[in-house]
Amino acid sequence: MESPSSVILETNKRYFVEDKFLIVNCFYDQKRIRPFLKDWIGLYPCDNVKLYEPLIFEYVMDHPRIDGSCFKIKFILKLFAKSVHCSGKYQFVYVDSYSKIIATSDPIEFVHKNDCNCNNALSQSNCMVHITIGQVSNTIYLLFKFKIAFVLCMGHNEDKALNSTT
């Protein structure tokens, strides 16, 4: 595992459930590490980090670089808003191309801009249904992004690339 200062995930402590986007700044120590095509950042409940089951994820290299050593990662909140609850703590996890955890953010929470209509005492089964729905949609999204990256890597053999992944 890289030293803790190789990658820093800068987040807010709170995000509004009603916001359109959620921004995470990802800073690199360019002398120690550099991002690769398949490095990604996922959002997880703090008490349930299953590496291949993020609530949502984004590939780092799909986002704009700022000042050379910082990527501005934009998550579309409505894609996973039903999977987060104002009673829970979450964290972002940076995973490299080899599925190693490189960095984690400080815990964050989601709150409402106005009065909360959520049931803060969510039952475990209710919460798991929302998390499972988010994980299934993200698995499909992950497979789709993987196929696109694979086709781009294969270049001129697009038909061969698509057939070999199905």
Q: Helical region count? A: 2
Query: What is the C-level CATH assignment?
Result: Mainly Beta
Low-confidence stretches: 121-127
Main β sheet profile: 6 strands, mixed
Number of domains: 1
Mean pLDDT: 79
Helical fraction equals 10-25%
Instruction: Give the tally of β-strands.
Output: 10
Terminal-residue CA separation: 33 Å
Listing every helix as H and every strand as E from the N terminus to the C terminus, the arrangement reads EEEEEEEEEEHH
Oligomer: single chain
Output the keywords.
166 residues; alpha+beta; Immunoglobulin-like; six-stranded mixed beta sheet; four-stranded antiparallel beta sheet; 2 helices; 10 strands; globular
Task: Explain this structure.
There is one protein chain. The protein has 166 residues and is of the alpha+beta class. It has one domain: Sandwich (Immunoglobulin-like), CATH 2.60.40. It contains two helices and ten strands, in the order ββββββββββαα. The strands form two sheets. Strands 2, 4, 5, 8, 9 and 10 form a six-stranded mixed sheet that branches. A four-stranded antiparallel sheet has the order 1-3-7-6, with no helix packed on it. A hairpin with a 3-residue loop joins strand 6 and strand 7 (70-76). Helix 1 runs antiparallel to helix 2 (158-165). It is globular and about 50 Å long. Pfam families: SKICH (PF17751). This is SKICH domain-containing protein. InterPro entries: SKICH (IPR041611). Residues 26-110 form the SKICH domain.
Short description:
The protein has 166 residues and is an alpha+beta fold. The chain has helices spanning 124-154, 158-165; strands spanning 7-10, 14-16, 21-28, 40-45, 56-59, 65-66, 70-76, 89-95, 101-104, 108-111. The chain has a single domain, classed as Immunoglobulin-like (Sandwich), CATH 2.60.40.2840.
